[in-house]
Amino acid sequence: MTIKHLSICIISLFLVIGCTQEKPQSEDNKSVSDTKAKELPCHPLTYAALFQQVSAEKYALEYQAYHLAKLALNQDLADESINQQRAVILDIDETVLDNSPYESMLVLQDTTYPYKWKEWLQKADARLLAGVKDFLEYTANNGVEIFYVTNRKEEFRDVTLANLKKHQIPQANTRHLIMRTKTSSKTERRSKIKEDYHISLLIGDNLNDFSQIFEEKSNESKKALIDNHKELFGSRFIILPNATYGDWEGAVYNYNYGLSEKEKHEKRMESLQGF
Ligand SMILES: [Mg+2]
Questions:
Q1: Are 208 and 199 a contacting pair, CB within 8 Å?
Q2: Cα(93) to centroid of ligand 1, in Å?
Q3: How many structural domains compose the chain?
Q4: Whose CB among 14, 194, 219, 223 lies 3.0–4.6 Å from 262's, allowing a Cys bridge?
């Protein structure tokens, strides 16, 4: 057994401990099924991965997001005061490509990211989200440029392009694919595009795909910022659901990704507010 495998086993043990600890039960909710349920081991990603991969509602949300994106783009195209070349900026993971098979693998193998992330990317076999291709073809046919701005590392450029090209989506080429640089913040990369283009729309699954104002903020602060900019959602910003990961989860851990799985579990439980 290698050190990597040993650490995966230790993490798995924490996950099982985290999910099977006893919860107080009153007399009236004690039942055979409750007793069995609490004994079931569960991975923290189980429900989120199910939602992302299995839920038909999530699938419908993909169509809904891109239908809304088309309406929003039409509104922008109708604005004759815009003289600059237009562009749409999209994130890739959980925005254009669906990585739910990777998340499901983590659950099934009882492990955590980044285990086999490289292997998954190298397969270049992620599904295109529903509605994406029609939207991108419509965008390109209306003379709007498309920039794919991702936090995948530069070493994955070729496999990312291969995955995009497999789906024959427009402008899947090196000039329009902007990989992660020194920082995960996309601010600098967006600003560079803004030097030459009018940005019609930003599409992503993470608030940081839209603006730096959301970076490193608590979820409560982010909600207050959303309230202050609510008119942008559905007009300039199109957001897709991602229950499996993102800065929403980082905020739960105060962006301390170095916490152990047990500590992360404790933070998750502390964050939940019952009635
Ligand atoms: Mg993403």
A1: no
A2: 4
A3: 1
A4: 14
pLDDT digits (tens, 9 = 90+) for 72-106: 999 999 999 999 999 999 999 999 999 999 999 99
- Distance from residue 229's CA to the centre of ligand 1 (Å): 21
> What's 195's domain CATH number?
3.40.50.1000
Q: How far is CA 241 from CA 103, 183, 256, in A?
A: 15, 24, 23
State pLDDT tens for residues 119-166: 999 999 999 999 999 999 999 999 999 999 999 999 999 999 999 999
In this structure, is residue 21 part of a structural domain? no
Distance between Cα 77 and ligand 1 center (Å)? 26
Q: What's the CA-to-centroid distance between 196 and ligand 1, angstroms?
A: 24
**Three-class secondary structure of residue 154 per DSSP:** helix
Q: What angle do CA 156, 162, 167 make, to 5 degrees?
A: 135
Find the 28 Cα to ligand 1 centroid distance in Å. Answer: 44
Domain assignment of residue 208, yes or no:
yes
- pLDDT surpasses 90 at 7: no
Provide CB contacts within 8 A for 9, sequence distance 6+: 1
- Distance (Å) from CA 241 to ligand 1 centroid: 10
Taking the whole predicted model, whether its pTM rises above 0.85 is answered as: yes
What spacing in Å lies between the alpha carbon of 76 and ligand 1's midpoint?
Answer: 24
